Amino acid sequence: MWDEAVTGYDFGPGHPMDPVRLALTMGLVRAFGLDREMEVRAARAAGESTLRLVHREDYVAAVRAVSADPGTADGAYGLGTVDDPAFPGIHEASALIAGQSVAAAEALWRGEARHAVNFAGGLHHAMPGGAAGFCVYNDAALAIARLLELGAERVAYVDVDVHHGDGVQAAFWDDPRVLTVSLHEHPRTLFPQTGWPEETGGPGAEGSAVNVALAAGTGDEGWLRAFHATVPELLADFRPQVLVTQHGADTHVEDPLAHLAVSLDAQRAVQEACHALAHEYAGGRWLALGGGGYAVVDVVPRSWTHLVGIAAHRPVDPRAEVPQSWRDEAYARTRQPGPARMTDGRTPGWRDWDAGYDPADRTDQAVLATRKAVFPLRGMLV
Prior knowledge:
alpha/beta; 382 residues; 36% helix; 6-stranded parallel sheet; single chain
């Protein structure tokens, strides 16, 4: 899913959510010819009725009003804050990104596509009644809500952004048809200070929210171990009809806004794992979204180009050189030299959970806390 106009989602100079990361990602996708290996579609902006599948009517009206006159933004509904400054057209740009994710979900459900990617999406912090964390409309939640409206009975959402997927969790807190799984930096050290393992879902939906809170400094081995010690078992139990995944690139060691130490190669390994899990448990229906990521030249374009390649069944070789034409474009746009290869030079691995755990290890403590909190609620063995 791509429309050049999504780069209009622009909070202004100096804001970390620089839309150049989207333009550079699409440029790298094209440089590797991936746009010729899959259908590139643009969808209309989400309309009022679609937005109201998740968002309150008064909030949508507030976004529209601020969009027409940004000077009226006073912090109400989270609009006009440092994180979410108001700008002309904020409603239109936000609704356009949401429309891409919703259209992708529709295409999957109707059998028009097996996999779909909207790397401009993944705006997982937006709440039903407010903007938060650089997110105005929650496209991930809207795509899931549309799947439910179309008749889906089980949708799984897996979020590997460094920040907790709080908005999606909130939207489906009381809905057992949606399993939300978030792996993120521990809320003690990072926004939005939610995503504790004890957050497991509302009445009637106990065990439908899963949170793995990882210590600052967690690197490839721990991150991959935590993913594989939770996500595959949960999906095997839940058997989703559609898998929606959010691939924020801000877990990377170079990201300026967080404190994990994950490599591009580990991010790629999780993308491959999500692809395989979609085929194994969701009939291949896979909607992959972007999310956070603020190393806008070195990390985000490479990570999400790998994601597109995996979804296209044309994975980019990590050893591949980054095309010089793209590096020239990146320098012209940002005055930053681009990376030379599609790898950080890592070969990440992890120790399987079935091999046993170390009660003194911080990652194992996090995984065990999650398994103890959630697995019994789902009738699963800890």
